[in-house]
Amino acid sequence: MVDIINSDMSPSEKKIQIRPFLDRMVDVDDVARYCLGTYWRTSTPEQKQHYLDLFHAMFTNSIADRLGDYRGVTFSIGRASPSGDDMAVETVIVRPNQTRANVLWIVNQASGGPKVVDMIAEGVSLRLTERQDYVSYIERNNGNIDALIRALTRQIERHG
């Protein structure tokens, strides 16, 4: 990933290159299911598939949009320790002219190989924050999962 970030590729080329990497290293489906909370169980198969497709696109866009922020970045990997059924991997991210960031990566093997299922920076869980946002949105729309699907669709369309 660091090679992609630090390359001279255009942003659109980087986005194309980053998607397979993310699919290999991150259990995006697991994160997506977690973010939907209990609404995952009540969703129809069609809603689930549409939501997963949108979540993958949103996730890729989100990472790709931030790649420029990480140009010149270096990572150092620290300890790995058990965290429930997962492993917590400590890292330090160093960006030029910025303070070091301590990031904890939560890695799970449930999908057949080690994949990231959460990132905790400054004590804040990325997937928990997303879950709170998504569930809150659904609740504000009377439990209507399609409302979230429409909102995600609009967001992706605006992104281009």
From TrEMBL:
Name of the protein in question: ABC transporter substrate-binding protein
